[in-house]
Amino acid sequence: MSQEKKRIPVAVLGATGMVGQRFIEMLADHPWFELAAVTGSERRAGQRYGDAVVWRLPSTPPAATMDLPLLAPDAEFDAPIVFSALPTDVAESIEPLLASRGHAVFSNASSYRMAEDVPLVVAEVNADHLQIVEQQRSRRGWKGFIVTNGNCVAIPVALALKPLQDAFGVRKVLITTMQAITGAGYPGVASYDILGNVIPYINTEEEKVEIETQKFLGAYRDGAITSAPITVSAQCNRVAVRDGHMVCVSVELGRDDVSSEDLIAAFREFRGEPQQRGLPSAPTEPIVVRDERDRPQPARDADVGEGMAVVVGRVRPCSILGHKFVLLGNNTIRGAAGASILNAELMADQGVIGA
Amino acid sequence: MSQEKKRIPVAVLGATGMVGQRFIEMLADHPWFELAAVTGSERRAGQRYGDAVVWRLPSTPPAATMDLPLLAPDAEFDAPIVFSALPTDVAESIEPLLASRGHAVFSNASSYRMAEDVPLVVAEVNADHLQIVEQQRSRRGWKGFIVTNGNCVAIPVALALKPLQDAFGVRKVLITTMQAITGAGYPGVASYDILGNVIPYINTEEEKVEIETQKFLGAYRDGAITSAPITVSAQCNRVAVRDGHMVCVSVELGRDDVSSEDLIAAFREFRGEPQQRGLPSAPTEPIVVRDERDRPQPARDADVGEGMAVVVGRVRPCSILGHKFVLLGNNTIRGAAGASILNAELMADQGVIGA
Amino acid sequence: MSQEKKRIPVAVLGATGMVGQRFIEMLADHPWFELAAVTGSERRAGQRYGDAVVWRLPSTPPAATMDLPLLAPDAEFDAPIVFSALPTDVAESIEPLLASRGHAVFSNASSYRMAEDVPLVVAEVNADHLQIVEQQRSRRGWKGFIVTNGNCVAIPVALALKPLQDAFGVRKVLITTMQAITGAGYPGVASYDILGNVIPYINTEEEKVEIETQKFLGAYRDGAITSAPITVSAQCNRVAVRDGHMVCVSVELGRDDVSSEDLIAAFREFRGEPQQRGLPSAPTEPIVVRDERDRPQPARDADVGEGMAVVVGRVRPCSILGHKFVLLGNNTIRGAAGASILNAELMADQGVIGA
Amino acid sequence: MSQEKKRIPVAVLGATGMVGQRFIEMLADHPWFELAAVTGSERRAGQRYGDAVVWRLPSTPPAATMDLPLLAPDAEFDAPIVFSALPTDVAESIEPLLASRGHAVFSNASSYRMAEDVPLVVAEVNADHLQIVEQQRSRRGWKGFIVTNGNCVAIPVALALKPLQDAFGVRKVLITTMQAITGAGYPGVASYDILGNVIPYINTEEEKVEIETQKFLGAYRDGAITSAPITVSAQCNRVAVRDGHMVCVSVELGRDDVSSEDLIAAFREFRGEPQQRGLPSAPTEPIVVRDERDRPQPARDADVGEGMAVVVGRVRPCSILGHKFVLLGNNTIRGAAGASILNAELMADQGVIGA
Q1: How far apart are CA B211 and CA D219, in angstroms?
Q2: Residue B113 has what pLDDT?
Q3: Neighbours of chain B (3+ CB pairs under 8 A)
């Protein structure tokens, strides 16, 4: 792949929203992909992207993108790869339409994550699940396919659990989250609700975290994905943080003879297929372990590995489940746009798309 | 007690600090107690309290207190009851001195909480532990005694667990906290560290929460206190909240046939000795259960029951330990000054002091 | 008035919004007024208020109000006094309708503030402007009338300037504001926009502050109100504060021989008609001056005088305009609901309404 | 200069503090300078820098620097250029010592800013003032010299006023600031004081802003610097923002026939000597004007031009002084470390040092 001269045209669906903007930011100067089309709401279709968008990220929006015309959600365009930042209800009808037209749809929406023939993939964790797209295509009669990337908490949790599962087995995972406001999009959380406050509830979040973690860590065998037999219990909270979801984890492993040092070594040594292939968006170390007793912290560590690494700290014994630790994942990069792009890079590198 | 005309003189040690200020605020217009003496650092001793203190609470400081002279830490004064907001190291030497002089010392310091002859008491939870002061007095040869009130997380946790322990038994408690900055005193947490951030570490906090919860829920029998055989595992975090510690709790009960509704009923029906005696600082309902799915919240619920009630919400099943819920305790009132005052009211009402 | 036994029935329009909730909170246990009717959006009309509202204030909503039926915006009801927390566009059509039906409408909406026959009144500042309601009634053929109370910045600014105008004359006022998020209602400002941020713009705010301050400080003569010939220049900013608008003021007085001490004395001695009449919601001191060099502060001073006083600090020379100082006004109480209620109390006490 | 192969060794004084860390961050990979020595407190001298420092910036500290030994404040070392992030009182004695030893001291401390033979320089504004070092050297008998860079508000204010002064003349400047917490160093502002709050006072800040702005905009003639005859009045506030000082400015120009468009053009066209020379740390546009009505904002614009540009917005008429606008300056980069480094680059490029 890396030898290719010509970049693959890609599209971003729902390009004016917060996740859409992150996609656009991360695709600017991408070595393999070239942003060729953007879609938005029916109402704004036809406008120049730069006129339709209120750019909310601290970065300067890429000049080339500003001049693209904003297409309607169901518009036709040429781009083998499509990144979907659509709202759930819109994604539900548009993503199958685009897959049927032959696009490889990498979706951040939750609509099809739990469909049995749709892979829910963290590239370092369960790249083998991508094989299910063959069943998906044949069953649904699509030329293209849908690949999903999961919830912004489930992704870093699955990533951190993967080396533990490989080395020791994982039986139970009890997690409590402290999630950043950017996880709710824009306008998202009202300032009145979160300034100097904690909200101990995020709609449908706990269910997603629990079942998606199980699917990420599940097995692909004989054309089917089986969720991992891991019990996951989540309590999700919103806190007054801008970027980076913090997660306190207690975990029961499959073996009793494991020390904190063993966990730390497993975290540190972990490398996935993206690292082996040297994909452009792959962090060198997918899991960075901090030794300081008061890290990770969202304000300091959310951008480690360009926001693509999970940062782990405070690995220590738990008197109930055996082990506990804290992890931080950048929710709009590793937990959303970046995860999708990494999945697309992986499939492009495998030669499945964009050839 | 309530018939008494004359109020009992009381002193506040460490009166210029944040917890000291809370004591003074709560003692203004107290029906039974009258603030008669305040102590501060050696350096400021001799100053008028109003000149020595930088009043940091949003309230107006009580005018009468402003004119009291600030006494040195080891000064002698007439006041049967003493509230200690001393730092740990100072408390270690001063509290025994005052107890030996005959004062009933109600201490918010951690120095003697785990001493085996010192009661660590939440008035609604383990009032019977107060009997150990007799052993304390005779063993140490003191005319007075020390009663402690515990960590600002352990107090509301023990209070919420008490009705569960009584009704169903409690085996395991896994908690994750999101604690307010006022828990660290003043200047406490640097704004650089907490603004838009989470700090996943509070020095010695997890240990305190674990062992104090066990002692609170322990038994007094034959002149000795035995900590409860409950496994407690805590992860403590600091968040950008002013008042009110949030705690996510997962609990394994002693019985399997308990529903969320049973827990809620147990919380709601719970009353302790302070409620039965109608103590002035006792909240009508020590545990208030909110039905909304997004409560409690510190910015909205920290002052329920004048800050003396614990607010519980989101009671629901936990796939790992059986039950989970969220609780909120006002850390400087229920978790500090108010807990001490309630203990003193209880012993005054029992006729043990101030007669 | 104070001798009256029977309380005057009042209604709150737009009762489910943030300002509506503040009205309801302040009217609970009001000695003169009794909440008899509440209106809301057409869509929710017919519901029980307690079912229609999401109570967002930290207080417990008054139980009696919870059972009131929510009326449609144009519903008929019996209540001589009406408090309007309607959005501007709705207020524009509903307030005249209610005035024509005979209600005394005290409006927090901006729709009629600058109408020449509608008084814009801060009870301590320009109570005499209320006389214009006679022209209003006769000109418009209404049995009732509309009285407005102004913008949440203009109110405290006018209140602070009034004693200076009386004693020294005021020529120019240059102000820069730092305004709380509650000024924008709910959901109001997105947390993404304000967390750790400042927004240097509030839609139409600067214009309102400038012209309303001039009208408040204007003169009523011969049946007409003339705005004061004071030049006002405002820069308005939103900051991450919950309650309380901070305002930095530079002022040029009509005389050159005025010292900071003269200003402070004028602030402290100021009393208006609400204080002279002892109205229930009148703060004892409408302007409280703090001597500390770092006050007022919203987190500490927003509730001074139950939120009805303006707090002033840092009175000192300005090398350009002569004098400068900082002021704080509670935006939802003094700057909104409380200002309206005080106006109604004043007119009730004058015997104009509710007889 | 840019042709030079060998980088000039530089030292950072007070290297463990917040400004010291910024210097180190900005000097990593600097094309002309190479960090050769770091000093810290007497107490920590001798430790490895990486052991002595608690790195508080979100970036990863440069590995090479971590291994430098921390020198005592008065230690001797080889490095023609010295950047001082010393506290005022230490700077007062150490900086002259180092200047006398022959070092070119670029100081962020306030100790010598107003000394008449010490240049106070913003490289784009008053590079000509650097000539005064000749008087400084001869008068004080030093081989080296001290150049200072001013207060973190005065720097961006002077930078924004410079093109106005050049084109139209400036008579009066009334400013109100909303300053980030990083301006106070570490631990700096207590979280209790600033969370959800505004503090309307910063010790000695207003005086510094006023007199330093006058000196920056003053004239160097015949071996002396004369402060500009501009009246400056400042009100300084601390707000809950991490990086970036916001300033609301009202300005009276020397001419009456100037439009907002004229100001905007002057801002946009402005280039200083650093731009003409293409210094490594010089922003392409020293003043960036945003057209949106709600910009600049610290959370979005603090890093424009790598934190070295001043961002201006909302240029519009002021009814009192003629013109008003909002500006934002990155306080630890443009307002501190970056300003110093730019001054050093300028003098190195002029051939004055490091030859």
Answers
A1: 69
A2: 96
A3: A, C, D
- Residue C307 per-residue DSSP state: G
| Shortest Cα–Cα distance, D193 to chain A (Å) | 13
Q: Assign C353 a pLDDT band (cuts: 50, 70, 90).
A: confident
With beta carbons less than 8 A apart as the criterion, state whether D276 and D349 touch: no
User: Of all helices (H) and strands (E), which one includes residue C35?
Assistant: strand C33-39
Residue with tokens 């720097």: D155
Q: Which of D308, A71, B242 is nearest to C300 (CA)?
A: B242
What is d(CA A325, CA A316) in angstroms, rounded to the nearest whole number?
6
Q: CA of B346: how far to CAs of B110, B273, B277, C104, in Å? A: 21, 8, 8, 53
Q: State both tokens at C167.
A: 């004693």
- Tell me if residue A317 falls in helix, strand or coil: strand
Kindly state the tokens that stand for B21.
């200020």
Please say whether the beta carbons of B315 and B325 come within 8 A. yes
Mean pLDDT, rounded, for C304-332: 98
Name which of D279, D341, D353, D351 is nearest D106 in CA terms. D341
Question: What is the 8-class DSSP label of residue C184?
Answer: G
Mean pLDDT of B169-176: 98
Q: Which residue of C has its CA nearest to B292?
A: C54
The span from the CA of A67 to the CA of A47, in Å, is 9
Say if residue B355's pLDDT is above 80.
no
SS3 B156: helix
Q: Is the CB of D180 inside 8 Å of chain B's CB atoms? A: no
Residues of B in contact with D181 (CB under 8 A): 191-192, 195
Decide: A322 and B174 in contact? Cβ < 8 Å.
no
Q: What is the mean pLDDT of chain B?
A: 96
pLDDT band at D331 (very low <50, low <70, confident <90, very high): very high
Which residue is it, tokens 């800013």?
D113
Is residue A205 scored above 70 in pLDDT? yes
Q: Quickly state the pLDDT bin for A60 (edges 50, 70, 90).
A: confident
Q: What percent of chain B has pLDDT over 90?
A: 96
Residue showing tokens 């640097």: B190
What DSSP state is assigned to residue A229? -
Half-sphere exposure of A282 (CA within 13 A, CB side): 22
Decide: D321 and D252 in contact? Cβ < 8 Å.
Answer: yes
For an interface test with B, the pick among A193, A197, A292 (most B C-beta atoms closer than 10 Å) comes out as: A197
Q: Which residues contact A331 (CB under 8 A, 6 or more apart)?
A: A152, A153, A179, A180, A182, A183, A243, A244, A245
Inspect the interface and report whether the beta carbons of B188 and D191 lie closer than 8 Å: yes
pLDDT in tens, B114-140: 999 999 999 999 999 999 999 999 999
Residue A354 has pLDDT above 80, yes or no: no
Q: How many CB atoms lie within 10 A of CB C12?
A: 33
Going A187 to A191 to A193 to A199, the CA torsion angle's sign is: positive
Write down the catalytic residue from D103, D129, D245, D323: D245
| Cβ-proximal residues to C254 (8 Å cutoff; 6+ apart), any chain | C168, C169, C170, C171
User: Which residues make Cβ contacts (< 8 Å) with residue A253, sequence separation at least 6?
Assistant: A164, A168, A169, A170, A171, A322, A323
DSSP codes, D268-291? HH---HHHHHT-TT--SSSEEEP-
- What is the SS3 string spanning A107-145? ECCCCCCCCCCCCECCCCCCHHHHHHHHHHHHHHCCCCE
Is D193 near chain B, with CB under 8 Å? yes
Does any CB of chain A come closer than 8 Å to the CB of residue B235? yes
What pLDDT does residue B354 have? Answer: 63
Beta carbons within 8 Å of D63's beta carbon, 6+ residues apart: none
Please report the ipTM that was assigned to this predicted complex. 0.95
